[in-house]
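Duplicate of #3305? Posting structure anyway:
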């Protein structure tokens, strides 16, 4: 019995009972998320490093002010989710390529996805529950924090 490899651009015919082609969707996700991540990351860098006083303005008050705005919360969460899923999918691909033992590969892939899910959950909680006024002391706080916490 000979096995032939399909042409790279040939339409995928899923084997009986298999369903969707996860490798194809993973490949497409990597390309789409990569493009969106470039826009999100360069937007993030531009606002943080070029607008206003640039890098000299970045301190706790700057981050607190940014994370109090829903637009920047969603921007950061989109960047977090896309980057972590993109990275986990890349690690999954590397694991598929280099780990030959089936059980080891399965354990590593579960560990990758569990770590990504934990970091996504933790990061999302931090972004949406961040409170710069926790332990607020007006005597030691900057003007920006005082304005944020006075409201």
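Output from current build:
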């Amino acid at each position: 019995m000979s096995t032939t490899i399909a042409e790279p651009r040939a339409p995928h015919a899923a084997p009986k009972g298999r369903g969707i082609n996860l490798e194809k969707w993973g490949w497409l996700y990597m390309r789409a998320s990569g493009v969106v991540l470039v826009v999100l990351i360069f937007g993030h860098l531009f606002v943080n490093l070029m607008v206003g006083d640039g890098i000299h303005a970045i301190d706790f008050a700057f981050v607190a002010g940014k994370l109090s705005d829903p637009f920047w919360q969603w921007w950061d969460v989109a960047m977090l989710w896309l980057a972590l899923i993109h990275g986990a999918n890349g690690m999954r691909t590397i694991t598929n390529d280099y780990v030959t033992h089936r059980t080891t590969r399965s354990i590593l892939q579960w560990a990758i996805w569990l770590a990504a899910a934990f970091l996504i959950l933790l990061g999302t909680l931090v972004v949406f529950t961040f409170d710069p006024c926790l332990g607020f002391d007006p005597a030691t706080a900057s003007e920006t924090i005082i304005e944020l916490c006075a409201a």
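Confirmed duplicate; merging threads. The chain has a mean pLDDT of 85. The chain has one domain: 22-150.
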